[in-house]
Task: inverse folding
């Protein structure tokens, strides 16, 4: 069973990916309820934490019911990363994770996220600065390399382990791929099979069904998998995968009532955590995923994404339950 510091994880754990504007406490709570074994915060700017930026600070919120949970930071300056790790430690997460994988331009252009893949020496210095400044286990999430011609994950894994990184999650794409094309887990498997590598190695990218999870588990022999986009609006995927591993059979698909309950709870918890205005608005991005492919739902989706008042939204959910409560998913 994989271990990160003193954190004992189950055999072949399922991790929830840190996703910006998605992996907040309400979403993590849902995923925990439905079987996620280890979760991470949205990524947090080290510079933002040091400047005391309100949004960065709010992302530090963690709750006991979601443990074990890690807080993920990113940045391109050693001193800022060290200082932010100290700030992170004050809220007592179970681990600190460093993001060396985010491919978006606004992060990469600051020499952070996947931008660091072009300079492994800098990656090592940044990681060392974090490890020295915290007593928490430090883990890293990264990609295969900058582009197809510069896949350097083998060197990255060895050098990070050598300085004390305690687990590595690898997204099976390069930065140049962004989220396009297919992830290639053969490179991640090579890292895992390197006799020098003793830390847990987790794979990430394209896991969107129990069948694929089992195929990749058997084919690549990693310590666990991280699931991101497939969990948005579908937190049931974790327990579905676990059930399929054990039995080879599928759990029944979530009913309409299950989906309404999850979306309603997600909304209520978002409002409780963020305040009504922000919680209501930021939930709008999730409704499409919760109610995907439902015939005749357009009118109600429109109500969900245009209603500003929480009580009125709860009335919309009641209406959806009355109209679609017996809807059958194929």
Result:
């Amino acid at each position: 069973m994989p271990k990160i510091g003193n954190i004992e994880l189950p055999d072949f754990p399922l991790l929830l990916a840190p996703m910006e504007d998605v992996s907040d406490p309400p979403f993590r709570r849902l995923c925990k309820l439905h079987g996620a074994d280890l979760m991470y915060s949205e990524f947090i700017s080290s510079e933002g934490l040091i400047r005391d930026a309100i949004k960065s600070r709010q992302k530090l919120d963690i709750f006991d019911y979601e443990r074990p949970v890690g807080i993920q930071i990113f940045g391109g300056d050693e001193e800022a990363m060290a200082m932010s790790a100290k700030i992170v430690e004050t809220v007592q997460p179970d681990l600190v994770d460093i993001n060396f994988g985010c491919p978006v331009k606004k992060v990469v252009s600051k020499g952070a996220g996947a931008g660091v893949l072009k300079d492994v020496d800098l990656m090592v210095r940044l990681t060392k600065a974090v490890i020295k400044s915290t007593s928490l286990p430090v883990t890293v999430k990264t990609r295969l390399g900058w582009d197809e011609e510069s896949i350097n994950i083998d060197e990255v894994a060895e050098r990070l382990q050598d300085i004390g990184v305690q687990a590595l999650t690898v997204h099976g794409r390069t930065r140049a791929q962004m989220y396009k094309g297919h992830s290639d887990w053969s490179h991640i498997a090579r890292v895992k099979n390197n006799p020098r590598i003793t830390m847990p190695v987790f794979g990430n990218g394209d896991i969107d069904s129990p069948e694929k999870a089992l195929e990749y588990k058997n084919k690549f022999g990693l310590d666990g998998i991280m699931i991101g986009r497939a969990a948005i609006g579908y937190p049931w995927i974790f327990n579905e995968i676990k059930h399929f591993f054990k039995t080879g059979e599928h759990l029944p698909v979530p009913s309409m009532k299950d989906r309404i309950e999850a979306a309603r709870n997600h909304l209520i918890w978002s409002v409780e955590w963020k305040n009504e205005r922000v919680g209501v608005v930021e939930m709008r991005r999730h409704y499409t995923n919760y109610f995907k492919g439902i015939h005749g739902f357009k009118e109600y989706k429109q109500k969900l994404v245009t209603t500003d008042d929480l009580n009125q939204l709860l009335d919309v959910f009641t209406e959806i339950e009355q109209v679609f409560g017996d809807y059958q998913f194929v």
In short: Residues 256-274 form the longest helix (19 residues). The two ends are 37 Å apart (CA to CA). The mean pLDDT is 93. The first strand starts at residue 3 and ends at 4.
